[in-house]
Amino acid sequence: MANQFIVVGGGVAGLVLARRLILGGQDVILLEASDHLGGTVAKHTVGGIDLDAGAESFATRGGTVAKLATALGLGDDIVTPNPEGAWLQPVSGPAFRLPENSLLGIPGSPLAADVIAIIGRRAATRAYLETLLPSQVGSRAKTLGELVRRRMGSAVLNQLVRPVVRGVHSTDPDQLTVDQASPGLRAALVRSGSLARAVLELRETSARAGSAVAGIDGGVYRIVEKLGLEMERFGVDVRLGARVSAVETDHVIVDGERIDGTVVVATSGLGTPAESPEDVAARPATRVVLATLVVDQPLLDAAPRGTGLLVADGANGIRARALTHATAKWKWLAERADGKHVLRLSYDSAGDDLAEVARQDAAALLGVPLPASSILDFARVEWLRPARVTQPPDGPPLAGESIAGTGLASVVARSEALAGSLIEDSKG
Question: Which residues make Cβ contacts (< 8 Å) with residue 52, sequence separation at least 6?
């Protein structure tokens, strides 16, 4: 006999949960407070081009997202980015190509010329000396920042790792656990005896498996479109604009109505039974501001900074923390852009002058003039990245970014595993 599950939250986490539960023979009600599904995985149109408004790639680790995309009929549309890679804009001086043998900025070959060019020989030598340290040093570090600082020193952390992590994860390495940043890094450190060797080992594994990230031809948002169609096909009771005012393990109150069932919370905007609305509002969250420019500038055809740049905190005159040259990164997008260029810059905060700030930052970072006349269109998107939470022992099970960690790979893997566990429990 099927159980009724109530999935609160219609982002990717909730959609994957609902799909998996339905496939497991369960009944599902999906509640979403907004007027659309998908959350931050969404589409917007800029300069006549359909683009990802949120995530534009996903980590390939575990194959979780690729497996989902394939099941949704998107397997043939999975694409890898331009292997040219990204550059790094230091606090001062010219931009450099990111060290070839690195992971989240951690150098696998600390004395390589491309590492010395960024941090200097003295700091590179300090980083190299970590290969002589016992593997236990830093192996229990809670955060990536603590691990890198203890093993390789502050220069590697501040000049390489911090700008990369800020650009990739929208947070500071001292706020990111080692396992969130790179599952398997801690084990590789213990196994190989060195952080540098661990990086080389993980990079070799990634190379054998293909690119560490991938995308979808046409945009990652297509995964949400396909999941939405699955909800229709399976007859899931999807309720948009559903405001949940109370949640327990066996029921929710939505718009004054009590709905009974096994509750799963897949949104960061809702408290558990032990939390008050004030507790939820007080959770720290990271604001992410994205500025997208569609540009007519033939000088960008040469991709002067590869697929984009990560920016060191305090870089002179630059407010952006990262720039993605999207049409250089994705072949499919370059074809659709028909000679135009798509640039996406990310900020921690921005005022009403974001369009002008983004234009100036892009010109400075890319080393190419971008007069106002070259900007064909501009779009601004803001997201709140939720703070991490832990599963309360007596509350409903949680899914989504707040518990799974940043990125589609983490979110999808958590939802798939949780749904599988709930299905097994329902059989008992």
Answer: 41, 42, 43, 219, 220, 221
